[in-house]
Amino acid sequence: MFALPQKNFRAPTTCLGPTCTQDMDRSHGDDLEGECSRKLDQKLPGVGDPVMLSSDTSYLSSRGRMIKWFWDLAEEGYRTYHMDEYDEDKNPSGIINLGTSENKLCFDLLSRRLSQSDMQWVEPSLLQYPDWRGHLFLREEVAKFLTFYCKSPVPLRPENVVVLNGGASLFSALATVLCEVGEAFLIPTPYYGAITQHVCLYGNVRLAYVYLDSEGVRVKGLILINPQNPLGDVYSTEELQEYLVFAKRHKLHVIVDEVYMLSVFEESVGYHSVLSLERLPDPQRTHVMWATSKDFGMSGLRFATLYTENKDVATAVASLCRYHGLSGLVQYQMAQLLRDRDWINQVYLPENHARLKAAHTYVSEELRALGIPFLSRGAGFFIWVDLRKYLPKGTFEEEMLLWRRFLDNKVLLSFGKAFECKEPGWFRFVFSDQAHRLRLGMQRVRQVLTGKSQVAEDPHPSQTQKPSDQCSSAELLKLCFSPGPPSPIKQN
Amino acid sequence: MSENRYGGAGQPAGASTDTWSISPWSDTHPVPSGQVLRDQSIYTQLLEMMLHLRQTMSEHFVQLMSRQGLLQEQRHTEAIREQEALLDRLLCQMINLLQSGAMSGLELQVPLPSEDSRGDVRYGQGTQLSGQPDPVSQLSDCEAAFVSRDLSNRGIDISALYQSKSQGYNAYQKDKYHKDKNTLGFINLGTSENKLCIDLMTERLLESDMNCIEEGLLQYADWRGQPFLREEVARFLTYYCRAPAPLDPENVVVLNGCCSVFSVLAMVLCDPGEAFLIPTPFYGGFAFSSRLYAKVELIPVHLESTITAINTYPFQLTVDKLEEALLEARLEGKNIRGLVLTNPQNPLGDIYSPDSLMKYLEFAKRYDLHVIIDEIYMLSVFDESITFHSVLSMKSLPDRNRTHVIWGTSKDFGISGFRFGALYTHNKEVASAVSAFSFLHSISGIAQHKLCQLLQNTEWIDKVYLPTYRFRLRKAHKYVTAKLKSLEIPFHNRSSGLYVWINLKKYLDPCTFEEEQLLYRRFLDHKLLLSCGKAYMCKEPGWFRLVFADELPRLKLGMRRFCDVLEEQKQDLRVKQLKPPASQPASCSGTP
């Protein structure tokens, strides 16, 4: 998905991610109503346009207004990109997107495979209401697929599989069924920032960042992303084991997101799925996610799967699947794709890895030439780049300004704050794009960093709002909707 | 909305509209959701709960003592309140179990027997109108039975609600009738699915224009739906709804099903605890969808089957009834944010005249209510003499910024497995807020392409699909209604939708919802799935919805089983009536 660019930032004052919308858990309707209006009436310190939130003319409920506002803000970069997308012929000066983690390298292979005749199949059951966990034929295929590619010591079982329309839906459903409103998952930072939105939109669950202490919030689980996003790191079996034992000790659920598991392109990197462990410390609280969005470069296909031995969790997630189902015809195609082990092993994966590796090599060499430090271990689609030396004061405001300068020079990146990175100045570069776009993107990056970009440097035109009057949307959401009184925002 | 899976299961629907913290979808049988505990004795369950209770209490005190100084006052209070609620809940569960244990020996049973007057109130009127339910009555047997240590309370609630509502449907899924392989399997005349045109759809979907793989289809796209699909939906609705001016693709949001659209609308139009008005009987899925994520209540506007001074026809919806329900709910402190209408109506098959529709819309405008109109059956009107008027065909809407239309392909095209629902709203703010949820309800690019191709080909739709579809609907409807007439079963004779609303009161003695439920189960025992009136929040016991949009051989077999069950039921009634009336509560009235 995409990172969450936000308008302006200051360093976070607390450890909590946002809780959006009000506390939905209480059944006293009258109380709630009063509470909402009270909260909305509170003057929010430093909000650019509070009218948007407290408007009486709105047709939306207060949570509706909040959600919309948050969405508008979060989507800014992505929307800007969509309005001015680069196209070699039609819009050569459009924006190059090195911000969204998508694999655009293997469309030719996929298109050929998905056009084969075995994919075109229609039968009555595919057109009718399904088993909401996903068609059995697909769950069987998923179980076999994961058994093989995760190197599971025992065959995985189709009844432990629940299929949904994307990883976001899965995060949302898990948050809803595992946590009460206002509870939290622990997550090591920096992490894929959109998860914040996924767990809070319906679930109203927060994230507690590992680097900070999470006093006062009940932590229900731990989210691990392996291979990690944005670091491109993989956990060793020892590390994994250690985290799982830690979680067990504290009776935490562990959600392991392995959405990049087949995108480990460096052979020397030994990747271990959590499903490959001989024995899970707490199998009933270990829930694994996988999807085709990244590993098969099909983010638009909307397919994700949960694997959990916990029947209650599987059933509860399946109870929500009515709202997160995917088309029967697509389920059929997915089963065909996952079944085709020959194509995956002999055609798709080798080619995909070779292309990822080449793109990775190109971008890392560019960065080295610029003398820019970066982290990358040979997994995923991105490089975690250290641009701290370009921020004289080392603040998140400067990080934001630099991000805007990139955008003005028509290249979209993701900045560290969107991953809740503690230090200002880190950026995520996605390299899994076609060579011509990648080259142009890197050229535009270089222009900005070497001060040769077309756009004016300083003061930035869009910086007319004073950064010091702004706070991050995460903080703002917290202010509006945290159960307690708003914590004072430190000015400056 | 999309299918009545839950109604189809025929479980009492009282639950779904109840206070949403805990639901009394009490049934005559314990819901088999508590895999963990169901098979254990009640004492084991009590023991487990006691242990849980003890642990919670000790945590509670630890927290009281250790954190007082550290925490902000409010958060502290919050934490204490949460724990209090949990303690309360556990205590109630134990009381419930003890009650049921006392009543039925050691077997786990319905904690609150249905003879209880509260049960009647619940069945008759929907609990949201009842006064202050005491804490114990709020607990269902499911709640007591389903105690999972891994799920959150709301997770337990969701899971139990779902399972209680899909028992019948799940039984059907596991044991479907097949003419060769499983002749003794279930016939499903309960789920509103159009199975009449699978041949046409299969053919159409296999045509070459359907298969297209483009880069854009496989990548992240506009979350509101691919622009090409939204354009097509706008054109399609302009044409089939006879809109006076072309509809704007920017007002369209497409999601993976109409239940998703409804759920998201409830999220963005209401705050938790707020409510929508909805005339009964109504599609039970609304209750599920409004409660599950959004925690929005549905306030029923009860309609009656009898013709009276106010009712010129059965189940007539009038502005007076709307107004009365609204004011009554307001008196109880409910904040009503909108009105939900289904047109053509499900389960009645009624179609609103432009005049009535206008009156409802004006009523809504008078009270600043949003109107959500579900027109999912709009092309399933099979009598040519009847014209359906979409709300989008009106020259001017009384309150266009508060009128939101839902349509999908599940019913009209018989492709419920496709997962497609569309919202049309003039209100940009609403459209944009709904979009914020769309990544949780998105449709595969490949499916979006196919849908676009499907909707685009109006020639095929007008010349091939619709004439055949309607002809087959008419035929099936004729077959079923002839059978009903021969059995002298009264039914609501309409010409739209996939179902007929039938009255089986005469087979119930006494005429109560318990008896209705028993009859429903008798159908199930004969491998026939129907939906009972209670799932539609019908005020009067004895109504069922019978879906006829199935292929004739299955339909015939279904009707044969239907007749068998009723014959058996009749015989039982004869025997029952010979016995002296013991402690039977008298009643065959719709009134509680």
Model description:
The complex is a heterodimer of chains A (492) and B (592). By secondary structure, chain A is of the alpha/beta class. Helix content of chain A is 39%, strand content 11%. A 7-stranded mixed sheet of chain A has the order 2-8-7-6-5-3-4, with helices on both faces. In chain A, α7 packs parallel to α13 (328-339), α8 (167-178) crosses α9 and α8 (167-178) crosses α12 (311-320). Chain A is globular and about 55 Å long. In chain B, the strands form 3 sheets. Chain B has a 7-stranded mixed sheet with strand order 2-8-7-6-5-3-4, sandwiched between helices. Chain B has helices at residues 5-8, 42-67, 73-104, 117-125, 141-145, 153-174, 198-205, 215-218, 227-240, 258-269, 285-292, 319-331, 354-366, 428-435, 445-456, 458-486, 513-525, 552-578, and strands at residues 187-188, 252-255, 275-279, 297-301, 336-342, 370-374, 403-408, 421-425, 491-492, 499-503, 528-529, 531-532, 543-547. Chain B has 18 helices and 13 strands. Chain B has 592 residues and is of the alpha/beta class. Chain B has 3 domains: 38-109 and 135-165, no CATH class; 176-198 and 462-578, Aspartate Aminotransferase, domain 1 (Alpha-Beta Complex); 224-461, Type I PLP-dependent aspartate aminotransferase-like (Major domain) (Aspartate Aminotransferase, domain 2), CATH 3.40.640. At the A-B interface, α1, α3, α5, α6 and α8 of A face α3, α6, α7, α8 and α10 of B. Chain A: It comes from Callithrix jacchus (White-tufted-ear marmoset).
Q: What's the short story on this structure?
A:
Chain A: It holds the Pfam family Aminotran_1_2. Chain A: Keywords: Pyridoxal phosphate. Chain A has 492 residues and is α/β, with parallel strands linked by helices.
Structural class of chain B: alpha/beta
Number of helices of chain B: 18
The end-to-end distance of chain A, rounded to whole angstroms, is: 32 Å
Which architecture of the largest domain in chain B does the CATH hierarchy give at level 2?
3-Layer(aba) Sandwich
Our estimate of the beta-strand percent of chain B is 5-15%
**Largest sheet data of chain A:** 7 strands, mixed
State the CATH class of the largest domain in chain B.
Alpha Beta
Please state how the strands of the largest beta sheet of chain A are arranged side by side: 2-8-7-6-5-3-4
Low-confidence stretches of chain B: 1-40, 99-146, 586-592
- The CATH superfamily of the largest domain in chain B is Type I PLP-dependent aspartate aminotransferase-like (Major domain)
Oligomer: heterodimer
Q: Helicity of chain B, in percent?
A: 40-55%
Q: Could you tell me the radius of gyration of chain B in angstroms?
A: 25 Å
